[in-house]
Each structure stands twice: as structure tokens, then as C-alpha cells.
Design brief:
The complex is a heterodimer of chains A (about 220) and B (about 210). Chain A has seven helices and seven strands, in the order ββββαββααααβαα. Chain A has about 220 residues and is α+β, with helices and mostly antiparallel strands. The C terminus of chain B is likely disordered. A four-stranded antiparallel sheet of chain B has the order 4-3-6-5. The relative contact order of chain B is 0.17. The interface between A and B is large, with 70 and 73 residues.
Chain lengths: ~220, ~210
């Protein structure tokens, strides 16, 4: 079976066949029919740097208290996990698990799996489990809601400020930094590049990920 | 561009949903597995229309208790007071934070409703084989995918208010079953949007003149 050229794709949103042109650094290609973003040119090195930074900031965001409160000489403070825990104690166990999933587990998996991928695709062909991780990164990314949580933290801060004196903690700033790093990390990551280095299930590839010009010569592959 | 667009399915190719590789399917009925990642190949997401309908109906059913039931209960020395999503919005508005009240109103009340309505609109137009406003419908679908998660914001507000206000016996806040229904609405609508297949929007265009804006 002849392999198709690697730069020939079908748009995931409308199935239009198209060739991905050579992209300038940080360039993106969109589907001419439906406008869906088809490809971005990323950099595996930059993504690695951002993922390491995100992992460090993630630790601070989870260990440090988000905010503290003092009323009539009594004090209390909370972390992200503390929020989920209080939900659990309050009897809303499913919601507690969901919060832990969206705010802690999903972003942790996204960063961790991405780091594992980035380290293992440095040499092509990368083992097949990298493909499994690539799928999981996508799933983790769609359920990671750090930015939504940040808005929730800010609103609860305002609500509580009406009742007592609240002090923002280090955690809140770490969460803000984490949002920026996560966004930069996923926008500089090019999954097509990573996929092109993964060993195929059916032993045909990877073909050398050619600089994806409209060089139809690539079609001669096999 | 020609009147009939060259799509993967028309030309006999199938695109892997997991890794994006374009390949020749093993057969027209059973496309087989992706040669690169081994995922099961499908020309279109299986039973996309039925699944999406089922999920938005389930979400619509949860929407009512999500807004009627309290999401938290505040207990002080002298009183006990339940809070619904709406009363939280009203409270913020009354205490002068009208901009936050507006954000919560949009995120918690309007986005879930708009999502349900928009998905139903996409499903109906696809089932009717509509060929109009394809680009707008495709854009609508992409917006749905992005905004859905923001409805969770109220759950996070409840979480951190509950976590911080634990000053028994002075004042304490406990979660209530409303949060469960509310998270159910958000998750069901997110999964509903994912089970819909936006390629169906364009499939009816084959053989007919595409109406461009």
C-alpha cells in the first residue's frame, strides 16, 4: 500500500482535503473552507522549556495557600486540594472528585505527559506508547480548567471580602502564572511534529518528516 | 474551487481522529485501524446525531434542579440560609459588584442554555440537510467548544467559599446537592459538543451548489 504524503490532510471539522504549506515560525494554517486551524508551526525546544516552567509553577500553585481569612481572631486558609477536600467532607463527593480532576489531575497529567513526550521524541522513531500519551494529552487538555478556576477564585474573593478580611496568598499568583504558561505551552506544541516521529503500528513509518513543502516528491515514498 | 469540494470521504480517504493521519481505509463499510496509531478509523463519528440529542436532553433535564436547588448553605449562630446560583448572582449585584454578577449570570445561566439551543439548531439543520450558512454554523460549533467550560466557574466559586468559611460555630458554609446537578449540566453539554461531528454540516453540500456568504 502506497503511503500518502505526510502533508496531505483532511480538515478535522469539514473533511476537505488539503496540503499543509510550509509555515513560517509561529505561523498557522487554516482550512480554506471552514476556517478551522489545521496546523501550527511549533518548537519542541520552546515547548520543553515552557513545560518545565509550568511543572514548577504547578507545584507552587498546589502547595501554597490561595487565600487566607481572619475574623474575630480566627483564621483560615485554603489550597486547591483543600477546596476539593471541604466539598468531600460536606457530602458532595462526586463534585469534589470533579473539582480535583479539573483543577489538579488534568493539568498535572497534561504537563507530565507532555514532558514525557517531548523527551522521548528527541530521537526518531519514538516508541509507540508516545502515541498513547499524545492522545491522553489532548484529553487532559480538554478537561483542564485552571483558567476557569482562577475566575472562580477571584469571584469568591470578592464575595468573602464582604464578610471578612481576606488576604490573597502566594498560590493565587502561582495559578495566574500557571495559566499563562499552560497557554504558551500548548500553543507552541505542534502535535503533528511529535506524531511524525512516532513508530507506526503497522511498521511503515515514520517516513522522514520532510520539510513539508508542496514537494510532491514525497509521494514517491514507497 | 470547484462546485463539489474534494473531501476525504469522497476521494476514498479516512482521517484518523486520534492522530490526524490520512490513510486509505481497509473497506468502505469497515475502515479498519489507523496504520500509525492503531485507533479504530471512522469516516464520521459513530451515531453522532443520536448521541448528541440524548446528551442535550439529559443536560436540559438537569438544568432545572441545577438552578432551583441550593448550591450552598450558610450557617451562622442565629440563622441558616440556602443559596442558589441565581441568589448568588443577585447577592453580588446587590452588594455593588454588578460586573461580577454579570459574568456569573452569563457563565452559569446563559451559556448552558445557549449551548443547548445552539446544539439543537446544529442538529436540526444537519438532519434537514441544510446547505446554508455552513461557515457560520462551523464557527458556531467552534465557539461552543470553547465557551462550555466557563460554566464551571460557579462550582469553583462555591468550592472556595465553602473551603474558606469554616469558622464554626461563628459562621460556616456547606455544599448542597445543587452543585452536583450543576456540574452534570456542564459536563453533559461538553460531552454533547464532543459527540457531534462538525463534518456533517458540510456533507449535505455534496452535489448541491454551496451557498457562500
Amino acid at each position: 500500500m502506497a503511503s500518502l504524503p505526510m502533508n496531505l490532510v483532511a480538515c478535522p471539522d469539514c473533511d476537505l482535503l488539503q496540503r499543509i504549506p510550509a509555515l513560517p515560525p509561529r505561523g498557522t494554517a487554516c482550512c480554506p473552507r471552514c476556517g478551522r486551524k489545521i496546523a501550527t508551526s511549533g518548537s519542541l525546544e520552546r515547548t520543553t522549556a515552557l513545560a518545565i516552567a509550568a511543572a514548577i509553577v504547578f507545584l507552587f500553585a498546589n502547595v501554597e495557600p490561595l487565600m487566607g481569612l481572619s475574623v474575630a481572631g480566627r483564621e483560615s486558609s485554603t489550597t486547591i486540594a483543600g477546596g476539593a477536600w471541604q466539598m468531600w467532607v460536606g457530602g458532595e463527593k462526586i463534585s469534589a472528585l470533579l473539582i480535583a480532576l479539573f483543577a489538579v489531575v488534568a493539568p498535572a497529567l497534561e504537563i507530565g505527559f507532555l514532558l514525557a513526550i517531548l523527551l522521548s521524541v528527541r530521537r526518531s522513531p519514538a516508541p509507540r506508547w508516545v502515541g498513547t500519551l499524545l492522545r491522553w494529552v489532548e484529553i487532559a487538555n480538554s478537561w483542564s480548567m485552571v483558567e476557569v478556576m482562577m475566575l472562580g477564585i477571584l469571584v469568591s474573593l470578592v464575595k468573602i471580602a464582604a464578610l471578612a478580611k481576606v488576604v490573597p496568598g502566594v498560590g493565587i499568583f502561582a495559578v495566574a502564572g500557571l495559566i499563562v504558561l499552560l497557554a504558551a505551552m500548548s500553543s507552541s506544541f505542534d502535535p503533528r511534529e511529535a506524531w511524525s516521529r512516532v513508530r507506526w503500528v503497522k511498521g511503515e513509518g515514520p517516513q522522514r518528516a520532510l520539510p513539508s513543502f508542496g514537494s510532491d516528491a514525497a509521494e514517491a515514498g514507497r | 474551487m470547484t462546485a463539489v469540494a474534494r473531501t476525504g470521504m469522497r476521494e476514498g480517504f479516512v482521517s484518523c481522529e486520534a492522530c490526524g493521519l490520512l490513510s486509505r481505509p481497509a473497506g468502505a463499510e469497515e475502515p479498519g485501524e489507523c496504520p500509525r496509531c492503531g485507533a479504530e478509523l471512522e469516516f464520521r463519528r459513530r451515531d453522532a446525531i443520536q448521541r448528541t440529542w440524548a446528551l442535550i436532553i439529559a443536560a436540559a433535564i438537569c438544568y432545572l434542579p441545577a438552578n432551583i436547588l441550593p448550591v450552598m448553605r450558610t450557617t451562622t449562630l442565629t440563622s441558616e440560609e440556602p443559596d442558589t446560583i441565581i441568589s448568588g448572582v443577585v447577592y453580588l449585584y446587590a452588594s455593588g459588584s454588578w460586573y461580577l454578577a454579570l459574568i456569573l449570570l452569563i457563565a452559569s445561566v446563559m451559556i448552558p442554555l445557549a449551548k443547548l439551543a445552539a446544539l439543537a439548531y446544529l442538529l436540526v439543520t444537519v438532519q434537514r440537510g441544510s446547505v446554508r450558512n455552513n461557515r457560520e454554523r462551523a464557527r458556531l460549533y467552534r465557539v461552543l467548544e470553547i465557551i462550555g467550560r466557563w460554566s464551571m466557574v460557579d462550582i469553583f466559586v462555591a468550592t472556595f467559599v465553602v473551603a474558606l468559611i469554616q469558622l464554626k460555630p461563628l459562621m460556616s458554609v456547606a455544599p448542597e446537592p445543587g452543585v452536583l446537578f450543576f456540574s452534570a449540566v456542564v459536563i453533559l453539554t461538553i460531552i454533547a459538543a464532543e459527540s457531534f461531528d462538525p463534518r456533517l454540516i458540510w456533507d449535505s453540500s455534496h452535489g448541491k451548489q454551496e451557498t457562500n456568504d
